[in-house]
Amino acid sequence: MANPYSAVLKLTFIFLVIASAPELGGSSKSVTIVNYCKETVWPGITPSENFSGDGFTLKPGQSAVYTAPAGWSGRIWARTGCDFDKNGNGDCQTGGCGGNINCTGPGTPPSTIAEFTLGDGKPDFYDVSLVDGFNLPIAVKAVNGSGNCSTAGCDGDLRNNCPSQLTVKKNDKVIACRSACDVFNTDEYCCRGIYEDPAMCSSSNYSKIFKQVCPVAYSFARDDPTSVMTCTGADFIVTFCGSRNQTVCSYHGKQLLCNGSNSKGFKTKPDWWWVFLLLVAYVSKLCLS
Ligand SMILES: *[C@@H]1O[C@H](CO)[C@@H](O)[C@H](O)[C@H]1NC(C)=O
Ligand SMILES: *[C@@H]1O[C@H](CO)[C@@H](O)[C@H](O)[C@H]1NC(C)=O
Ligand SMILES: *[C@@H]1O[C@H](CO)[C@@H](O)[C@H](O)[C@H]1NC(C)=O
Ligand SMILES: *[C@@H]1O[C@H](CO)[C@@H](O)[C@H](O)[C@H]1NC(C)=O
Ligand SMILES: *[C@@H]1O[C@H](CO)[C@@H](O)[C@H](O)[C@H]1NC(C)=O
Ligand SMILES: *[C@@H]1O[C@H](CO)[C@@H](O)[C@H](O)[C@H]1NC(C)=O
Ligand SMILES: *[C@@H]1O[C@H](CO)[C@@H](O)[C@H](O)[C@H]1NC(C)=O
């Protein structure tokens, strides 16, 4: 996906730390969450040991690092179009999780979901799921892992290709794409009843459109199980509105790791500036703590 905002994004990259561990040790994982969207998102993260689900915003170009404890199983998704009052009460156009900035439950479909099951010393599993529909592109990249650590998720934005029967609109603009199961609620689309058997539940003309835009993602409940990755020792980067081939950076210990199709490069000034600003942000975090 061409991203006209990337130069600006890289210059405004801000480093937030949520649920920080003083040192990334043991088998806790750093999950860097980056907002490449043109709009603010409110990430949703399944609560864990040191993170109770408190809401926060990521403006365009901002990132946050979530430290997931060993063995964490959970989801990361984006809430969009939220409007919270000064007490933190309000609603989101998509992905809302209880009428508050702090999530009290999972997001309301339709929303794209990054799913993780972290092995404590064993391989980690991760995938992107469109089973609950789509609200924005998500890509999950594993950095410095071993095993099958392919990048999961999307190359484009399904809001631009959503079949008309599945669209969710706000002011004539498509803000999300519902799943065929959600809209038609048949056993066949939902993989229920006799279709519960993976051999019986096949892709539909709807799920195929989802799969075209997000090739490494679950496009329906019994989608090809190879959509889930099995990777050991990696840190993760979740991007909102990025694409799978994008160069991304994350932290592990005191090192900045970058990867992507251009990872040998960093030829252009904006890329260097981005790394530089990340380092400045990181060093200032070290100095403050
Ligand atoms: C990444 O993929 C998008 C869409 O598939 C394409 O437009 C873009 O040129 C690719 N970028 C790189 C660096 O390969
Ligand atoms: C949770 O916080 C405690 C106390 O600061 C820390 O010792 C522990 O490592 C943290 N756990 C994770 C997973 O960050
Ligand atoms: C959200 O959680 C944080 C920390 O637990 C708390 O300080 C804040 O008041 C909560 N916000 C709302 C709107 O409940
Ligand atoms: C990257 O992975 C290798 C082997 O998997 C490990 O030895 C190395 O320490 C890792 N690098 C960082 C910065 O974590
Ligand atoms: C980046 O990706 C390349 C190829 O995919 C891989 O060989 C390299 O080890 C990766 N580097 C890091 C730091 O993960
Ligand atoms: C999918 O197939 C159904 C029934 O076969 C048809 O009614 C519907 O229009 C098709 N939708 C798309 C987007 O092709
Ligand atoms: C890794 O997973 C992807 C997606 O499931 C699959 O296409 C690929 O063949 C796998 N690679 C290896 C080395 O297992």
TrEMBL record:
- Please, which domain of life does this record's source organism belong to? Eukaryota
> Record's InterPro entries?
Osmotin/thaumatin-like_sf, Thaumatin
Kindly give the CDD domains that the UniProt entry links to this protein. Answer: TLP-PA (cd09218)
This protein is called Thaumatin-like protein
Name the principal localization, coarsely classed. secreted
Keywords assigned by UniProt, alphabetized: Disulfide bond, Secreted, Signal
Q: Name one GO cellular component term.
A: extracellular region
Species name = Arachis hypogaea (Peanut)
Q: Which Pfam families match?
A: Thaumatin
Q: List the disulfide bonds.
A: 37-241, 82-92, 97-103, 149-231, 154-214, 162-177, 181-190, 191-201
UniProt keyword Heme present: no
Q: Which residues form a coiled coil?
A: none
**Localization per Swiss-Prot or TrEMBL:** Secreted
What lineage is on file? Eukaryota, Viridiplantae, Streptophyta, Embryophyta, Tracheophyta
Span of the signal peptide: 1-19
Q: Which family does it belong to?
A: Belongs to the thaumatin family.
Checking SMART domains in the record gives: THN
